[in-house]
Design goal:
It contains 15 helices and 25 strands. By secondary structure, it is α/β, with parallel strands linked by helices. Helix 11 links the parallel strand 8 and strand 9. InterPro entries: LRR_dom_sf, LRR_R13L1-DRL21, WHD_DRP. Keywords: ATP-binding, Nucleotide-binding. This is NB-ARC domain-containing protein.
């Protein structure tokens, strides 16, 4: 926020001063009726005269007799003194100057051309043109700034704002050869992306929770960002989101297991100094309403967030009148009647870009959703839908499809591969789909693919992942038992997916593949070394892959091994430089934890697990001995948990664990005692349960931290 205020202050300091502004009576001068107006340089000594002369057409210098006065500013315009003015030629004849070549304007010169004609910052409504805003070559009067002032008063109420050009980047406004700021081509894209993001975020209200990914995907669906070169819009949006958190406009509220960190908009967001000098924002385009206030919303509304107790016919009829609406977010406690009337509703709202129906009590979507040809964002997460209509595959502009929490969803449209612009397919593999649609590998724009079910038939093999090189975030690959050979596993080409940060590799709970083949398959599923989290479920092999202990995985911070019951040897994980969390569950084949677990053979003078903070061993039913720990290992360990290790007899030394705060020993019935060198002074809490010998040794009176 402070940085934005500084920019506003600097931009104001660069604008022309008021003392040189032209006399307002000059506005009463007339234009020749038979010829349109054009720009001439304002009477300001500080503006470089030669720049303006070089930009004017030759006809502008031809002498003529002034016509009777004609108003330039519409009578209903209140801020006439802030608008621009001009004549097609000077008021007195004079000899034309030698022509000069048209030269490209810098951002500074383009700004002077606009702001040099006002006494205050312009924040005024102008006619909206759908073309991309740009700075064009100076031409005749029908493209001039003075034309903006001669628009009817209706033009000012149907449009959007002009952003201060000092706050625009040169690359976002100027083409290669430009000479004139065409104000009448400025649209809502001209506003800074950050301001546009704030405007759209107002649809959520101060008490509405949202996650970062969903908000950024909504911004992208609105076309807010125009990244340069090969920038990814979601990355640009993520940067804006982080800046709004820093400015305290988005406030973290809680952590959710399904969506991660949740945020809420600051209730004072619209009073922020970010809006200084931009008083006439088009807030009438963005509205929150309940069913009572719905009737007072103008039919020209573009973005609506509707809160209601019941979605009835009356609401449907009102919504059908909003034919130009681009965003519809429904928040209803009960969606009675939705299945019966929504087909007709979507036939009227064909301009929708964003449709958010998440958490509604609906069981299906109507086929008419396929008529929303401009739809970029569809959210039906946490609903009871069982399938999507096949017409969804005709939504060729769809970027985001959110299905997370749809526990009854059993299939996707069979032609999902036609959604070639799809960037985010957000779903839950566990408890949802029975299979993946054929040909998903053709969706090469995908960035989010929460899960992939490996199938046996053509078009559903793991090789469909080969060309999805833009995947990022979390990916769960399930039903790995359907991979027929190691060569087929290698077709997934996971090592080239450098933006995947979390990978889950999962077999079904009951499968009978060859142990050796399964080990080879897992070896071929090596991810990119930039991976941060790895989870392996229900692996039946006797040893884990060699790459899991490779120190080149320098960014991995968490490893979870779950029900790898046949593994008899833990890999050398101690040399992973960034590993912070290690969780091992139900690895019943392990009998000994020795030096191999801490460091590879021959490695000397290196501390094992240098960054590990949490270690949990749960249900290692055959573990008997833990050995091989050396002084200096686990220097940052905070939590240590041993659960369901009934054959474990002794623990390694704890005295050198100077960072240890919390320790749990549960259901380790054969454990004789704690290490002889005692408990580190740093330990604050010990939880001991179903360990009779340990409980005898530790008395509450001797160690107050015992629980």
């Amino acid at each position: 926020m402070a940085r934005r205020q500084k920019l506003l202050h600097e931009s104001k300091s660069k604008r022309p001063k008021d003392e040189d502004a032209a006399d307002p009576s000059f506005l009463k001068e007339s234009l020749k009726p038979s010829r349109p107006s054009n720009i001439i340089p304002p009477r300001r000594g500080r503006v470089k005269q030669r720049i303006f002369e070089s930009l004017l057409p030759d006809c502008a210098w031809e002498p003529f007799e002034p016509s009777p006065p004609k108003p330039v500013i519409p009578p209903t315009t209140k801020r006439a003194s802030e608008l621009v003015w001009g004549l097609e030629s000077a008021r007195e004849p004079f000899e034309p100057s030698p022509p000069m070549p048209v030269i490209p304007l810098t951002m500074k010169h383009a700004s002077e051309l606009v702001w040099g004609k006002v006494t205050e910052p312009i924040v005024q409504y102008v006619k909206k043109i759908p073309n991309k805003p740009k700075v064009e070559e100076l031409s005749r009067a029908d493209q001039s700034v003075s034309d903006v002032a001669s628009q009817s008063s209706k033009s000012y109420t149907e449009s959007t704002t002009i952003t201060d050009p000092w706050e625009m980047t040169e690359s976002s406004v100027l083409d290669q050869s430009v000479s004139k700021v065409a104000l009448n081509s400025i649209t809502d894209h001209e506003r800074s992306p950050k301001m546009s993001c704030i405007l759209f975020s107002c649809l959520f209200g101060p008490n509405f929770e949202f996650d970062k990914n969903s908000m950024v995907q909504l911004w992208v669906a609105q076309g807010i960002f125009e990244p340069e070169n090969e920038e990814i819009m979601e990355i640009v949006g993520g940067t804006v989101f982080d800046s709004l958190v820093e400015d305290n406009l988005f406030v973290p509220v809680r952590y959710d297991n399904l969506y991660g960190q949740l945020f809420a908009a600051n209730e004072n967001m619209l009073d922020s100094n970010l809006f200084e000098g931009e008083e006439q924002l088009p807030m009438e385009d963005f509205m929150l309403a309940d069913e009572v206030g719905l009737v007072s919303i103008p039919s020209t509304i573009k973005h609506l967030s509707l809160f209601c107790e019941n979605f009835d016919l009356h609401i449907v009829e009102v919504l059908k009148s909003f034919t130009g609406m681009q965003t519809l977010m429904l928040h209803c406690e009960c969606a009675t009647g939705f299945n019966h009337v929504s087909h007709d509703l979507f036939l009227h709202l064909k301009r929708l870009r964003t449709l958010d129906l998440h958490q509604l009590d609906i069981t299906e979507l109507p086929s008419s959703v396929g008529d929303l040809e401009y739809l970029h964002y569809l959210d039906v997460s946490e609903t009871s839908i069982k399938y999507l209509p096949e017409t969804v595959d005709s939504l060729y502009l769809l970027q985001t499809l959110k299905l997370k929490g749809c526990l009854q969803l059993c299939r996707l449209p069979k032609n999902t591969r036609h959604l070639v612009r799809l960037r985010h397919l957000d779903l839950d593999i566990i408890g949802q789909l029975k299979s993946m649609p054929v040909g998903l590998g053709s969706l090469t724009s995908l960035q989010t693919l929460s899960g992939f079910l490996v199938g046996k038939k053509d078009g559903c093999h793991i090789g469909e992942l080969m060309n999805l090189v833009n995947l990022r975030g979390s990916l769960c690959i399930s039903r790995l038992e359907n991979i027929s050979s190691p060569d087929e596993a290698e077709q997934a080409n996971l090592s080239n997916k450098k933006h995947i940060t979390k990978l889950q590799l999962q077999w079904s709970t009951c499968h009978s593949d060859s142990v050796q083949v399964e080990e080879q398959i897992l070896e071929r599923l090596q991810p990119h070394v930039g991976l941060k989290e790895l989870e392996i479920f229900f692996f039946n092999g006797s040893k884990l892959p060699s790459w899991i202990s490779d120190p080149s995985f320098a960014q991995i911070v968490k490893i979870t091994l779950f029900k790898c019951r046949n593994c008899s040897l833990l890999p050398s994980l101690g040399m992973l430089p960034s590993l912070q969390f290690l969780e091992i569950y139900e690895m019943n084949g392990v009998r000994v934890i020795d030096q191999v677990f801490h460091r590879k053979n021959g490695v000397q003078k290196l501390y094992a697990f240098p960054k590990l903070e949490k270690l949990e061993l749960d249900t290692l039913l055959n573990l008997e001995v833990w050995d091989g720990m050396e002084n200096g290992d686990f220097p940052n360990l905070l939590e240590r948990r041993f659960k369901q290790c009934p054959k474990l007899i002794s623990l390694p030394s704890l005295s050198h664990l100077h960072s240890l705060k919390h320790m749990e020993i549960i259901a380790c019935s054969e454990l004789q005692s704690l290490p002889d060198d005692g408990i580190p002074a740093s330990v604050e809490t010990i939880i001991v349960k179903d360990c009779p010998r340990i409980i005898e040794q530790l008395r509450v009176s001797e160690w107050p931290g015992l629980v």
